[in-house]
Amino acid sequence: MVSASVGFQCPDCVREGGRTVREARTIAGAPVRQAPGTGTNAVVTKTLIGLNLAVFVLVLAVGDDVVDRLMLVGRAIIDNNWAGVAEGEYYRLLTAAFLHQEAWHILFNMVSLWVLGPPLEAVLGRTRFLVLYLVSAFGGTAASYLIAAQNQGSLGASGAIFGLFGAAIVVGHRMKADLRPLIALLVVNLVITFLNTKWIDWRAHIGGLVIGAVTAVCLVHAPKNHRLAAQVVSVGAVVAVLVGIVLVRTSQLT
């Protein structure tokens, strides 16, 4: 027998009843986890933080050679050789988003990720949240690659973090939450960005913000009847646009 709120039930009755109960879903299609200990536990958020910290430790241990190999750069001479995305090193569009040199830089980004990540991961689910983060990061690096000078280096998770800001606003609006604190925090970060353009890649921040918001719209406004298919197609279209931007810029530089 299986313990129930009103006495006991036989296992067959429990299984039969389970077949008729539809699992509750969030606005993005993720399972609703309300009971203590059954949530996402921010597994993806913690993993992303761990990857960023691991790369930071690698930079501290190895030095500038890792930075030269992983940072975003369009086309430049590094170690007496042409290098960069335009030279076929497309991996830089992703690796740059996990790369930090200064302690204050990674501290700021990881604290922001820890604040924004778990709530979004709970609403979107692990897979969708990971897709959001990576597409936002790609949006930031693609924007920087398109606009910045070809030999200007860029690194950091800030593009992805701003993507989470954009996504949080979209999700909050969809859930009719009070967005004023979040918008105020975003405005403060944008002001800091544009007051320090000498050290901060504003292109990556704006690119990540826009793409993160657009990706979130694709995830939380997909029709329920064909939600997964609509999400895959719409997010795929966003990625295709970013790939097109990268290819156009590459043709310009080569």
Automatic annotation (TrEMBL):
Looking up SUPFAM superfamilies in the UniProt record yields: Rhomboid-like
Looking at the record, the residues that make up the Peptidase S54 rhomboid domain are 88-220
Species name: Streptodolium elevatio
Record has Protease as a keyword:
yes
Can you name this protein? Rhomboid family intramembrane serine protease
Q: Do the record's keywords include Transmembrane helix?
A: yes
Query: What is the similarity comment for this entry?
Result: Belongs to the peptidase S54 family.
| GO MF, any single term | peptidase activity
